[in-house]
Specification:
The structure is a single chain. This protein has 64 residues and is mainly α. It has a domain at 25-55. Helices cover 70% and strands 0% of the residues. It has helices spanning 6-20, 25-54. It starts with 5 loop residues before the first helix and ends in a 10-residue tail after the last helix.
Length: 64
Amino acid sequence: MGGLSIWHLALVAVVVLVLFGGRGKLSDIMGDFAKGIKSFKKGLSDEDEAKAKAGEIPPKDPKA
């Protein structure tokens, strides 16, 4: 009951291989995650700039 069966060990081995095996898949996943965040932030700032051009909100002060 408290021990690890062959299925537990196999599952741990698969997780380790997915995360650390191959060509640095973990770093690829984190790089994709960072690109997604950067693109999201860029999209938000583009939306603010579009509203500022339309006169809906005042433009941001770059010194603030």
